[in-house]
Amino acid sequence: MKPSRYEEAGVSIDAQDQAIEQIRGHVGATNTPRVLSDLGSFGGLFDIRFPEMDQPVMVASADGVGTKLKIAFDAEVHDTVGQCLVNHCIDDILVQGARPLFFMDYVATGKLKPHVVADVVKGMSIACKASDCAILGGEMAEMPGFYKAGEYDVAGFIVGVVDRKKLLGEDRVRAGQKLIGLAATGLHTNGYSLARKIIFEEQGLKLADELPGTGRSVQDNLLAIHRSYYKPLADLLDKDHIQAMAHITGGGFLDNVPRILPKDLSAHIAVDSYSVPPLFQYLVDKGGVDRDEAYRVFNMGIGMILVVEAERAASVTEHCAAQNLDPVALGEIKAGDGTVVLT
């Protein structure tokens, strides 16, 4: 048989077909009754009738997992980043009160390896099923010469829905409301470029080494799955017990909390109100990272911050503790200038 000219150029349609077959089961496992199309359609079909809502508002977001992928490449573990990607996207729309409906992905690589793509999508499937979110479709792109051997990039796109009267945000934030921090499971998906520089370049650690003070390997610390806060907080959202939320991603406390603040209010956060996890203590100490930069680069052990009415703080904290979110009283909203004040 005459060799395929396309394969000679570095692109294998057969490999793509193999990958599609390997992910078919993972994608199908996330189907909900609203999904009206099958894998392989040009576009995903989704039923958007919401008779239980007075005025449904669609909420959409897109994101990636940054240089956390470098850890996945070196460790040859690919399903965890798939879960991180989905959960990051879910948390991004959750802060506006939205529940996830469907997710779509984009995977690009220099040389398509079906089993690697299958592992990534397997992780996406695990996270989507856990949040009743369908994988509605996606794209695989083989781009020879564009990516290094063994590397790929992945991005996620999510759509959710919220009744307009339950939208969360700055218009519901008032002076006197309390801030409750919820524990992160690790770095989540941000700060990896600095973390990798400190751990590997400056301290000379390897993936299999124990990260001092943590009792876990470097690999386990850095591949810890980004937590989804959707299911644990769903009841509180239904009861309208949360006024606003900040997902602590790139930009940390200092850049993300202001996104939910009116211009005449500030968030006063007591950094000594909780114990910073050993992973972050190590990065700050060994990297010589000053306090303000640390709270702008890393999540410092807090993945989500809730804004609640003072009279609700105790019950919300109790609920979050029962959901194993390790809530802490971080501070409160005061008159100010739309910034975060670390105390």
UniProtKB/TrEMBL annotation:
Belongs to the AIR synthase family. Residues 57-162 form the PurM-like N-terminal domain. It is an enzyme of class 6 (ligase). CDD domains: PurM. Its EC number is 6.3.3.1. GO terms for biological process: 'de novo' IMP biosynthetic process; adenine biosynthetic process. The keyword ATP-binding applies. Pathway: Purine metabolism; IMP biosynthesis via de novo pathway; 5-amino-1-(5-phospho-D-ribosyl)imidazole from N(2)-formyl-N(1)-(5-phospho-D-ribosyl)glycinamide: step 2/2. It catalyses: 2-formamido-N(1)-(5-O-phospho-beta-D-ribosyl)acetamidine + ATP = 5-amino-1-(5-phospho-beta-D-ribosyl)imidazole + ADP + phosphate + H(+). It comes from the Bacteria. InterPro entries: PurM-like_C_dom, PurM-like_C_sf, PurM-like_N, PurM-like_N_sf, PurM_cligase. One of its GO terms (cellular component) is cytosol. GO terms for molecular function: ATP binding; phosphoribosylamine-glycine ligase activity; phosphoribosylformylglycinamidine cyclo-ligase activity. This is Phosphoribosylformylglycinamidine cyclo-ligase. Keywords: ATP-binding, Cytoplasm, Ligase, Nucleotide-binding, Purine biosynthesis. HAMAP family: AIRS. Signal peptide: none annotated. Residues 174-340 form the PurM-like C-terminal domain.
